[in-house]
Amino acid sequence: MSSTHGNTIDFDSAKLKLSQGTTRSAPAKPAAGRPTPVAAVLQRLSHLLQTSLELERVLEMFFQELAHNLAVDGMEYRNDGRRFQTKFGQSATHRCSYRITHGGEYLGDLQFSRQKRFSEAQLEALETFIGSLLYPLRNAILYHEAVSSALNDSLTNTGNRLAFNQALDREVQLSIRHRTPLSLLVVDIDHFKQINDRFGHAYGDEALKAMASCTHHCLRSVDSLFRLGGEEFVVLLNNTDLTAAQIVAERIRRAIEEMQFEVDGQPISMTVSLGAVMRHPEETSRDLIDRCDKLMYQAKQAGRNQVML
Ligand SMILES: Nc1nc2c(ncn2[C@@H]2O[C@H](COP(=O)(O)OP(=O)(O)OP(=O)(O)O)[C@@H](O)[C@H]2O)c(=O)[nH]1
Question: Residues annotated as region Disordered (predicted)?
Answer without folding.
Answer: 1-35
